[in-house]
Amino acid sequence: MTSHIESDAIRSAEWVHDHLDRFQTDEPDYRLVEVDMDPDMYDEWHIPGAVQINWEEDIINGLGGNVISKNEAEELFGGLGITRETNVVVYGDLANWFAGHAYWVLKYYGHENVQLLDGGRRYWRLEDYEQTQEVPEYSSREYEIDGTNEDVRAYKDEIIDSLDEGRPIIDVRNPQEYRGEKPPADIPNTTEREGHIPTADNVPWGSAVNADGTFKPESALREIYAEYLDRDSTTVAYCRIGERSSITWFVLSELLGIDAANYDGSWTEWAPDESAPVERGMPPTTTEGDS
Fold first, then answer.
1. What's the pLDDT tens digit per position in 61-87?
2. Which of 196, 208, 212, 249 has the fewest CB neighbours in a 10 Å radius?
3. Which residues does residue 170 pair with via DSSP β-bridges, in sequence order?
């Protein structure tokens, strides 16, 4: 099932498959980038021509909102043969959790021409498209960053300051985490204090995707996020370490055009700060959904 969404922010697997030759040359016009939770997945198979970003080693300097520095980002992207003009298509496992975060980092550093591969690894494999273990090598390129796009990023102190202003906040984790219970075994337990940010709604990230990893049709997404479509203030999305929330941010900002920001520090930064308020339990109006 492919998404019925017209957006410059996504590329269909069919389109990438039909244009694979563009991603397998040394020219910096197009570059495929894979980002997974488990970097060993790339070694098992990847799309021909794709390079790899190791999320934990390449994109962040530790959990809790520590995005790589400008100089580190320039070295990383330039080393992959990417220039400021390169059309970058990012994909990965888990319906693009970590690929979505890499997309967000590229946007944070002002890279305009970047898309997510709709459905990521799962959909690509379901369609039985080409796979390889061959690791490509591309010439390094100069990659210069002029600044950051702060509109896409939320910070802990500003969220605390706006809690009494009715700012829309979405906790994209599963209801178990939101209620303040111990997270499931497949979710990293990064804090001692559990719960959620006061006033935050629980809309699990998985509400936005189909079983095959592709995004749901635009009509369905508009229904899911209807109450955020016409809000006057920026909607904040957060999770535990900032990767799941990047998917919700992507849907809000890139697919639906909602003014939104990703709180990449997320629960790992929020919970240890005793001055940051925490609530537990599930509001009576919240519907438990996909995790």
1. 777 778 999 999 999 999 999 999 999
2. 212
3. 201, 237
